[in-house]
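User: We ran a pulldown and think these components assemble together. Before we commit to crystallization trials, I'd like a predicted model of the whole complex to look at. Sequences follow.
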Amino acid sequence: MIKVQNLQKSFGDVQAVKDVSFTALDGQITGLLGPNGAGKTTTLRMLYSLLPQDGGTISIDGVDPQSEPLKVKRQLGVVPDARGLYTRLTARENIEYFGQLHGLKQGQLKQRIDELSTLLDLGGFLDRRTEGFSQGQRVRVALARALVHKPQTLLLDEPSNGLDVMSTRALRHLLRDLKQAGHCVVLSTHIMQEVAALCDQIVIISDGQVVANGTAEHLRELSGCPELEDAFVKLIGTEEGLLA
Amino acid sequence: MMRGAKIVALKELRDSLRDRRTIINSLAMGPILGPLIFIGMLTLITQKEVEKAVETLHIPVVNQSLAPNLIGFLEQQGVVVEPAPSDPEQAIRNEDHAVVIRITEQYPEQWRSGKPAVVEVIADSSKREISTTLTRVRLLLNGYSGQIGSQRIQLRGVDPRLVRAVQVRDIDLSTPASRGALILAMLPYFIMITLFVSSTAIAVDTTAGEKERQSLEPLLINPLPRWQIMAGKLAATTLFSLVALALTLIAFMVFVGFIPSSRLDFELNINPVLAMRFWYITAPVGLVAAALLTTISAASKSLREAQSYMGMVILIPMLPSLWLFINPVKAETWMMWIPLLSQNVLVNQLIRGDPVLMIWELISILSTLALGIILALTAARFYQKPKLLFTG
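Assistant: Here's a predicted model for the assembly, 636 residues in total across the polymer chains.
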């Protein structure tokens, strides 16, 4: 479970995150929805302890990322916006590397990679170097890498960026499975259909602030619009940066 | 405790070994090209010196008719006396001739009256390549002067040895090895530059390159302290440069055999034991190079920025070598406290066959390692900054 209260972050004069609060429950998928530049990536980076916040508090299963970054990192699986695979290593070696850094032993690791290979359908390219992989293949390897240590909480930054329809379907399937298994899943996106199809809770962020928070149903009511897309536009007050 | 660093180091080694460009630059070109250029240069220089020392002198002489006796002497000594150019000074400036001898108009008059007869030697002594020729011409003229002088005194019934109040006898204490070392004075530079050249590619790739390819962010999300990630990368870089150093020394050992040293009567011998000593004396510089390059890579905003500093870094190991070249000094203990300078001095001492105190080696190694650790801590501090993530 993630609890975020009054999160703030500035870079020089630019206030990237002004006031973000939300709670993401276990067994649920929480979507951070907002136009490009709304502060979603910065918020996630503070969650996985890569950036220190200027103000506000974060608690991930009771752990504060700033005071106990290593402990938080052990609980989290993260797929950052930049997938950043090593192109001279094979998919398997990429996953192994992160598994080893999480302290997995060789035997354990091999078994876990077999599981992930089945789960994410990596079989065809597991032992190929990642140079020239398609976006879909890259996201699947990045997901395997993030899940290698069986984290309770999964953070994904724009996970369906550049994915084709089939890969997107597979990704949604996986995230639902993780939710069923009781994991806490948080994803950021600027794609409406994604949240509509997937998320139990939607946190709309605009210009560094949470402008609305709730289920799809709740947001429709709140805005008085029957279509979620219209509701979204109305809530953030602009069409700028949106992608249907 | 250092498990994480070890995993990172192993991954970086594997990754780099799969990069053909890194392999060619670090482990092939550097260790072979450097020694090859160096030894090639030396061979050329020594061959030229040898040729100058034995080649027939061709010397233009002005006013040959005024001193037929001197001309006869020169020809007897194997000099080919050539007709003089119309303007000898200009000919020297144009580098048409190395040396021109001018017999002055007063020569016959002075000769007859028993005064020193003036002969001018025209040359530009700032041109190093003519120094052997110039020396040989002076020796010939002095020899002639001495010979005639002795004959004159003998004719007057005086023992010619009387006019030689002092006889200078040169006792040259340079051993064959130390004479060779004069030429090899730049060897420490050529050894140490390898450490910088070979670690550049991998240091830049593992930090600035990882930033550029955006794989640094996922890596930093793993549960290990950032200094351990940095330490792993540093270890891989250092290891790379130490292997390159060993390959360079092996290349030197092989190539030195090709210098025609027998003709110059000095011994240039880098045997395996000496090469081993060079290796462990200069090895701590490998840590300094790797840590310095990693710091620069971590502090740079982009790959391009990091690369732009590398040209300057290559100059650093040159400074102590240049200083010693311009200002040759006796090896002293205080020098051992200065990284890079101490390695220069020690390698020079060893190649001359001069004594090296064990305490010197110890101070040199420890002070250089200390600098390496300070630089590594600096790199770790840059890794700790949130700014590390952002490019551009």
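Residues 17 and 23 of chain B are 6 Å apart (CA to CA). That may be worth checking against your pulldown data before setting up trials.

User: Thanks, that helps.
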